[in-house]
Hints:
alpha+beta
Amino acid sequence: xxxxxxxxxxxxxxxxxxxxxxxxxxxxxxxVDPTSDDAVAAMRAYFAELDGRFxxxxxxxxxxxxxxxxxxEQNGGIFVVARLGCTVAACGGVQRHNDYTGExxxxxxxxxxxxxxxxxxxxxxxxxxxxRLGYGHIVLDTNDVLTEAIAxxxxxxxxxxxxxxxxxxxxxxxxxxxxxx
Length: 181
């Protein structure tokens, strides 16, 4: 079937209409269960991207299932999926690090949805949930090949700290006061 001549085609990779992709305000953030279809699909895409970018690859092990409980609100966490039209455009989670600190985990933006400020909006969304959950501090870790993420965290007021965990893939650890979000 041929496309109608004056109707823009959908991007076959993610199903985003060009007009929707150009309007970042049309992004909708949803709290979801970390085992939902959207969350699992986003995490699989995120892990695949990390595997392609990390020197030596990335093995998520069983983290697709073991971290689920910690990213549920009854356990001090949350998982958020951003949708742009009918596409999962981004995701991120929060888990309890300690009584005063929430940790941002699994923040990812679909490569075909980048360039419209969605990473910063997802970060702000997660920071808002951290404050709502009652945490006064935020921590996160990342790998040195994720230069875009590192730059965004620094622009957003995060400062680099010593390692707070033993994540074998982390090379940078950051913190920020939740009151400065």
